């Protein structure tokens, strides 16, 4: 596979950054927790799922047949992307833009699961996500942050929540998803399957209010930082 072209980065961080990795299945509360932790610690947030959604949206917009992996991989090697800090988040942009509303639309939601499991796509995305650390300390959420993207970080969490509750959250956002099937696909894919990273803190987010879950995570992070002198 050809080597992807280097990406332009801005705002390099001169100090050693910290990465807080939050993994878990869809609608387990990863994004809510990640955003609040990033705000609290004044770190940058990275929503890795948005990157897969951006690629899916771009393929649909440009007429790329997403049923053909070779066409999607060709897009990864040719689309004009750049990592930028926007609203305290590191975001992947294409042609200088970040179509925030469009990547959350039903067309992308219905098709992102076809694009994201492709091994070569995940290789491209993992390399890109690792580049985010050039901007400074991060709170990154996704499916494989602690296992593959930043396995060296000592700050790892794996959030879970009851399947029926996650389906209700999905419906409230206008999405329709069978969480059991989606979880099975994520866990069984060959490249970067969804599973807790070694050393990660398991957090069941089913019954707790987000503030309770976030307070627990903060307490662990603060304890670990004190231990490590960070």
Describe the structure.
37% of the residues are buried. The protein has 9 helices and 7 strands; from the N terminus they run βαβααββααβαβααβα. Strand 3 and strand 4 form a beta hairpin. The chain has one domain: 3-Layer(aba) Sandwich (Rossmann fold). The chain is globular, with a radius of gyration of 17 Å. By secondary structure, it is α/β, with parallel strands linked by helices.
Topology:
Layout (H helix, E strand, L loop, with lengths): L18 E5 L6 H12 L2 E4 H15 L6 H10 L2 E6 L2 E6 L11 H10 L3 H13 L6 E5 L2 H5 L5 E6 L2 H10 L6 H10 L12 E4 L5 H19 L2
Parallel strand pairs: 1-5, 1-6, 2-5, 6-7
Antiparallel strand pairs: 3-4
What's this entry about, in short?
The protein has nine helices and seven strands; from the N terminus they run E-H-E-H-H-E-E-H-H-E-H-E-H-H-E-H.
As a percent range, the share of strand residues is 15-25%
Succession of helices and strands: EHEHHEEHHEHEHHEH
Return Rg in Å. 17 Å
Tally the helices: what do you get? Answer: 9
What kind of sheet is the major sheet?
5 strands, parallel
What's the pLDDT, averaged over the residues?
Answer: 88
CATH superfamily label: P-loop containing nucleotide triphosphate hydrolases
Looking at the chains present, what oligomeric state does this protein adopt? Answer: single chain
Measure the end-to-end span.
Answer: 39 Å
User: What best-fitting shape do the alpha-carbon axes yield?
Assistant: globular
Poorly predicted tracts of residues: 1-6, 8-14
The CATH class assignment is: Alpha Beta
Percent range for helical residues? Answer: 40-55%
Question: Into how many domains do the coordinates divide?
Answer: 1
User: What's the arrangement of strands in the largest beta sheet?
Assistant: 2-5-1-6-7
| CATH-level-2 architecture | 3-Layer(aba) Sandwich
Give the strand tally.
Answer: 7
């Amino acid at each position: 596979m050809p080597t992807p072209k280097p990406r332009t980065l801005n705002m390099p961080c001169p100090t050693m950054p910290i990465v807080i990795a939050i993994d878990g299945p869809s609608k387990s509360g990863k994004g809510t927790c990640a955003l609040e932790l990033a705000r609290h610690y004044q770190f940058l947030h990275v929503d890795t799922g948005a990157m897969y959604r951006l690629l899916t949206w771009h393929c649909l917009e440009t007429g790329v047949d997403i049923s053909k992996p070779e066409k999607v991989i060709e897009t990864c090697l040719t689309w004009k992307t750049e990592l930028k800090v926007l609203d305290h988040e590191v975001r992947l942009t294409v042609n200088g833009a970040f179509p925030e509303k469009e990547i959350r639309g039903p067309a992308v939601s219905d098709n992102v699961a076809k694009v994201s499991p492709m091994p070569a796509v995940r290789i491209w995305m993992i390399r890109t996500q690792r580049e985010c650390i050039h901007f400074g300390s991060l709170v990154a959420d996704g499916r494989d942050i602690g296992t593959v993207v930043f396995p060296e970080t000592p700050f790892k969490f794996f959030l879970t929540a009851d399947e029926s509750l996650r389906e209700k959250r999905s419906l409230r956002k206008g999405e329709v998803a069978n969480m059991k099937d989606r979880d099975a696909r994520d866990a069984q894919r060959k490249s970067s399957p969804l599973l807790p990273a070694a050393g990660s803190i398991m957090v069941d987010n089913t019954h707790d209010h987000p503030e309770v879950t976030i307070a627990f995570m903060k307490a662990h992070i603060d304890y670990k930082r004190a231990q490590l002198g960070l």
